[in-house]
């Protein structure tokens, strides 16, 4: 009878010891798992970053190959127009600036808000990059290019349309003037908010439209006339027109 309490006590102590061992063992395993998991996550993030860098480099190379291919293809035809939606890239070649020199314009998106415009001229059998602009707005709700002589120097310039309003259509964009001697590009920021920019070659005037009243049953539009003076457009008058809904 005297040995039973000893056996019970000894057995109970073993149970407690086993429980303590299991408890701390589980904590140790969990801690090891956390450390191991953290290492695995760190490695995964590093690998992911490396994959992103590789993918970006691959995309840049693909785009470089694309523009080189388009330039090569443009050698075989009078006019060529190509584009990629995402990321946005647009290419157009032909006798865009005059009837003597074959040119190509390449528009490349570099961020959500900016894009670069490149101008090439064909000299012999080789495309030569003449100039580029890096501070172009990249809004392309209604993108198209228009070539016209906006400064009346005998060489067409480039209008990059970026937006169009509803109702009475108002087109907005960026005017890029091309120097007739050097083919350097000059962006006129002040014209970005001028709607429906147009050329009056007979009077050598630039006009744009401004909505004075937009309400049914008619819209009153003011057509503002400008002439170039020392590289700037000077207002010389305006007239109104009525557009019925």
Spell out the key features of this protein.
single chain; 245 residues; alpha+beta; globular; disordered N terminus
Account of the protein in words:
There is one protein chain. This protein has 245 residues and is of the alpha+beta class. The chain contains 1 helix and 13 strands. The chain has a 5-stranded antiparallel beta sheet, covered by helices on one side. It has a 4-stranded antiparallel beta sheet with strand order 6-7-8-9, with no helix packed on it. The longest helix is centred in the N-terminal third of the chain and has 71 residues. The chain starts with a helix and ends with a strand.
Explain the layout of strands and helices.
Layout: H1 4-74, E1 80-84, E2 89-94, E3 103-109, E4 114-123, E5 126-137, E6 144-148, E7 157-164, E8 171-178, E9 185-188, E10 195-200, E11 205-215, E12 218-229, E13 232-244
Antiparallel strand pairs: 1-2, 2-3, 3-4, 4-5, 6-7, 7-8, 8-9, 10-11, 11-12, 12-13
Q: Helix-strand pattern, N to C?
A: HEEEEEEEEEEEEE
Strand content bin: 35-45%
Residue share in helices? 25-40%
Q: Please tally the β strands and state the result.
A: 13
Structural class: alpha+beta
- Indicate the radius of gyration in whole angstroms: 34 Å
CA(first)-CA(last) distance: 111 Å
How would you describe the shape? globular
Q: What's the number of helices? A: 1
Biggest sheet: strands side by side, in what order?
1-2-3-4-5
- Rounded average pLDDT: 80
Mind describing the biggest β-sheet? 5 strands, antiparallel
The stretches of 5 or more residues where confidence is low (pLDDT under 50) are: 1-18, 27-36
